[in-house]
Amino acid sequence: MKPLSVIEFAKIVGGQTINCEGLELTGFAWDSRMVDPGDLFLAIKGENVDGHQYVGKALAAGATASLVEREIEGPQVLVPNLVEALAEYGRHYRDTFKGPVIGITGSVGKTLTKEFAAAALFCLGPVLKNPGNHNSEYTSPLIWAELTSEQKSVVTEMAMRGFGQIAHLASIAKPTIGL
Questions:
Q1: Are residues 1 and 29 in contact, defined by beta-carbon separation less than 8 angstroms?
Q2: 54: buried, middle or exposed (CB in 10 Å: 19+, 13-18, 0-12)?
Q3: Average pLDDT for residues 60-74, to the nearest whole number?
Q4: pTM of the prediction?
Q5: Under a CB-based contact definition with an 8 Å cutoff, are residues 179 and 129 in contact?
Q6: Which residues of 6-20 are buried (b: 16+ CB within 10 A; e: fewer)?
Q7: Given the DSSP bridges, would you call strands 24-25 and 4-5 parallel, antiparallel or unpaired?
Q8: Contact 146, 1 (CB under 8 A)
Q9: How far apart are CA 118 and CA 129, in angstroms?
Q10: Do 101 and 154 contact (CB within 8 A), yes or no?
């Protein structure tokens, strides 16, 4: 992704910055063990683990700041809802793209179907697609940060673990074609 100031990111997602002056982000991490320097650490609160507990480790590993739902130590973007903040981020970039967007969902075979669709569309030019199976409400919106002017189409994989998640992801990707 093209470097983005943490303050600009916060404006896009409607967040409040704390100690972020002059900081840039160059990627995202949702696992403190997988942080690259310049990443924005996503403090995801799950059923068993709260990412807010790992902010210190992420910052020590080189994260620029953290996206959080409650105040913590260190540079941060504070938002009321992390999932909705990521959705706003994805929508911000999606709304700049005018080419075809293929949305893929289903109970099995999504990742393989995504790869086939991207290969078929490559004749139009470079294709943006989810890396691996990054297809959740946390990872799917982040593919839009990789959008460049060279890409002519997008293939996005959307997973569902609960009621309403496909509608949520479709509201970000706004597919022109669904599979």
A1: no
A2: buried
A3: 97
A4: 0.93
A5: no
A6: beebbebbebebbeb
A7: antiparallel
A8: yes
A9: 7
A10: yes
Write phi, then psi, for 7 (nearest 5 degrees): -65, -40
Site of tokens 């697609």:
129
Mapped onto helix, strand or coil, the DSSP state of residue 85 is helix
Query: DSSP class of residue 91?
Result: H
| DSSP at 38 | T
Residue 178 in tokens: 């669904």
When pLDDT is cut at 50, 70 and 90, the band that residue 62 belongs to is very high
pLDDT at 81: 97
- What's the pLDDT tens digit per position in 119-140? 999 999 999 999 988 889 999 9
Condensed to tens digits (0 to 9), the pLDDT of residues 77-136 reads 999 999 999 999 999 999 999 999 999 998 888 899 999 999 999 999 999 999 988 889
